[in-house]
């Protein structure tokens, strides 16, 4: 008998019919003798509806009250699924994040899990019950409801699997696995049978919407076997595994193309090129809980100044610009400029470690389509470029073709 943690996304529980179908799937696992913990998102569109209600009342909703509001969506689905399982003769009990006791920090709307009390779940599992948990939420030490950010139900699922030492964490969604890139952009994109935690972490951080980055971090840190599957069709999905479990000789040079449209670029021009200036620019940005991505500092000009450029999520642009303008005044910089019409495109693959000329091949493919590169950042297993947003899909198709990702290529 195995313990499975299954997470179902919003489209998987988007209607009563779909909740009934999820109940059938969970019941089938239970009938085979497995222990089951099920994590649910809110019905598709429900979180957006609640956010819109909040914005009708308050232009910039209070973060604490926003968490109270949006956490209600998952309570609907967990109760309905528990009812559906009981109708099928399987005992089930639903819990909010606070009832399970998923303890988080107090960073409302972006909380991080600190620990999980598994005693209540263990008692239910030992009694043969299906445990149904609201994803995306927890409580802080003061009992305030917190949420984990968009996609946080994935993190809930993986964190519960780690805490319970589950056999496997299965993420059920509206796609049947992880693809070489978004099939909506490249028709010939191919589903991957297996991908390493390293690659999936890069793909998630670079814009792939299949899994939340923190879910992959949890899975890799605690060695939780993680599988992405479709709720709506049968199949093995994509297994996300440890690097040492795969034979690198069979790894393609590039496994996938990730991209992100939600990028914005900020440049502070004419700052003094002196030690510590980067910290003086970025520390105030970080203090506002704004995540910085790609960073470029130009060489010093004749007058001893330099330009400093970095990217942030597009939703944070206005806030980041306000911070940067204050910093510019303090440093005596010439000006602050921003651009919210950019995108990031990345190639990812553990096979890149042992292959030269990957970057030149990438740049050649983009150059052939007259796509200008504004910024570049690299690691052992990824190369990312910032480009004009209007060329995004062209760039993705060009790179997918250049690295022959439509067919599995074994490296020599």
What topology emerges from the helices and strands here?
Blueprint: E1 3-8, H1 16-31, E2 35-40, H2 46-57, H3 63-70, H4 72-87, E3 92-95, H5 97-100, E4 102-104, E5 113-116, H6 119-126, E6 130-134, E7 137-139, E8 145-147, H7 152-164, E9 168-173, E10 194-196, H8 197-205, H9 213-221, E11 226-230, E12 238-241, E13 256-272, H10 277-287, E14 292-297, E15 305-313, H11 317-331, E16 335-348, H12 358-368, E17 375-379, E18 382-388, H13 392-402
Parallel strand pairs: 1-2, 1-9, 2-6, 3-6, 9-11, 10-12
Antiparallel strand pairs: 4-5, 7-8, 11-12, 13-15, 13-16, 14-15, 16-18, 17-18
Helix pairs in contact: 1-4, 7-9, 8-9, 10-11, 12-13
Q: Care to give the gist of this entry?
A:
This protein has 412 residues and is α/β, with parallel strands linked by helices.
CATH topology category name of the domain at 3-174: Carbamate kinase
CATH C-level category of the domain at 3-174: Alpha Beta
* Share of helical residues: 25-40%
Strand order of the largest sheet: 3-6-2-1-9-11-12-10
Q: What is the number of beta strands?
A: 18
Give me the Rg, rounded.
23 Å
Strand content: 25-35%
| Overall geometry | globular
Uncertain segments: none
The number of helical segments is 13
User: Can you give the mean pLDDT?
Assistant: 91
Structural class: alpha/beta
The CATH homologous superfamily of the domain at 3-174: Acetylglutamate kinase-like
How does CATH name the architecture of the domain at 3-174?
A: 3-Layer(aba) Sandwich
């Amino acid at each position: 008998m195995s313990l499975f943690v299954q997470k179902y996304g919003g489209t998987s529980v988007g209607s009563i019919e779909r909740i009934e179908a999820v109940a059938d799937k969970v019941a089938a696992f239970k009938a085979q003798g497995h222990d089951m913990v099920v994590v649910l998102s809110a019905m598709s569109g429900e979180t957006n509806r609640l956010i819109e209600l909040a914005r009708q009342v308050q232009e910039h909703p209070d973060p604490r009250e926003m968490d109270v509001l949006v956490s209600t969506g998952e309570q609907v689905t967990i109760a309905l699924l528990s009812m559906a399982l009981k109708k099928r003769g399987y005992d089930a009990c639903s819990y909010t994040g606070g009832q399970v006791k998923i303890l988080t920090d107090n960073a409302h709307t972006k909380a991080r899990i600190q620990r999980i009390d598994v005693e209540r779940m263990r008692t239910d599992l030992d009694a043969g019950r299906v445990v149904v948990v609201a994803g995306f939420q927890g409580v802080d030490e003061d009992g305030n409801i917190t949420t984990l950010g968009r996609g946080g139900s994935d993190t809930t699922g993986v964190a519960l699997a780690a805490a319970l030492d589950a056999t496997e964490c299965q993420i059920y969604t509206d796609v049947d696995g992880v693809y070489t890139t978004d099939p909506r952009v490249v028709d010939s994109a191919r589903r991957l049978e297996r991908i390493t935690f390293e690659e999936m972490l890069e793909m998630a951080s670079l814009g792939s919407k299949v899994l939340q980055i923190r879910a992959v971090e949890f899975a890799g840190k605690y060695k939780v076997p993680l599988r992405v599957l479709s709720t709506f069709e049968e199949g093995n999905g994509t297994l996300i595994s440890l690097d040492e479990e795969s034979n690198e000789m069979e790894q393609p040079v590039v496994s996938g193309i990730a991209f992100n449209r939600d990028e914005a670029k900020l440049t502070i021009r004419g700052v003094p090129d002196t030690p510590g200036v980067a910290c003086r620019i970025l520390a105030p940005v970080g203090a506002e809980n704004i995540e910085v991505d790609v960073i470029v500092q130009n060489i010093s000009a004749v007058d001893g100044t330099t330009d400093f450029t970095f990217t942030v999520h597009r939703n944070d642009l206005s806030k980041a610009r306000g911070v940067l303008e204050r910093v510019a005044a303090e440093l005596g910089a010439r000006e602050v400029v921003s651009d919210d019409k950019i995108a990031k495109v990345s190639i990812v693959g553990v096979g890149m470690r042992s292959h030269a000329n990957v970057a030149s091949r990438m740049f050649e493919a983009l150059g052939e389509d007259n796509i200008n590169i504004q910024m570049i950042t690299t690691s052992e297993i990824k190369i990312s470029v910032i480009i004009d947003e209007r060329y995004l899909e062209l760039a993705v198709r060009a790179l997918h073709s250049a690295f022959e990702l439509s067919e599995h290529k074994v490296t020599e």
